[in-house]
Structure formats: C-alpha cells, structure tokens
Design a protein that fits this description.
Blueprint (H helix, E strand, L loop, with lengths): L8 H13 L8 H11 L9 H13 L3 H18 L2 H15 L7
Helix pairs in contact: 1-2, 1-3, 2-3, 3-4, 3-5, 4-5
C-alpha cells in the first residue's frame, strides 16, 4: 500500500486537482480524484491545510458528492481566513460558488 511521503504530497495534490477540475474531459476522473484527495488527507497537518481540503472539495464536486464538497470547501475557507491567506480565500470562494450551484469546478 502507498504511504504518505511529504515530498510527494504536492505532486499528488496537483494530480488530484487535475483529475477534479481539468477543462479536458479525458483528464477528469471524479472517483480517482476523491481517492487521491482522501489519501492526501491522511498526511500530517492535512486537516489544517486549506489547499489540500480545497482539492478534496473539488474532487467531491467532480464525483457529484455536493454535500461533502460544500462541507470541505467551507472548512477550507474558514482555515484560509484564519490563516490570512488572501489568495487561497479568493480561490476557495470561487470554488464554493460553483459547488453551491451544483456545478463541478473547471480550472
């Protein structure tokens, strides 16, 4: 089984983001994005990382699990606001708007 390696977290996060949000249909895979994002959420500090939680939210949206997606996006937004990361806040707000309209996010 795979183990979390801190050096691979950014690459896996990027892959999950592509699977969840790509404009190219052939690259999207909601189920695969959720599996990767949930795996990443096992990494140390993930519960307090708005970027990883944002990826999880996007993955759930692509898979059609909008309730889980909204909950994750709201959590990511709260953490990003608490951390004062303006860029993340803006990105997550855009993601949350799409999810609340039950639309997958495209990047």
């Amino acid at each position: 089984s795979l183990e979390i390696n801190p050096k691979t977290v950014p690459a896996l996060s990027g892959l999950a983001w592509i699977k969840a949000t790509s404009k190219e249909k052939r690259l999207r895979d909601g189920k695969g994005a959720v599996e990767l994002a949930e795996f990443l959420m096992q990494s140390p500090g993930a519960d307090n990382n708005p970027e990883l939680i944002k990826v999880l939210a996007a993955a759930h949206a692509e898979a059609g699990s909008y309730e889980k997606s909204i909950m994750a996006a709201q959590r990511a937004l709260k953490i990003a606001r608490d951390h004062g990361t303006v860029f993340s806040v803006e990105q997550i707000e855009v993601l949350l708007l799409a999810i609340e309209e039950k639309k997958p996010f495209r990047n």
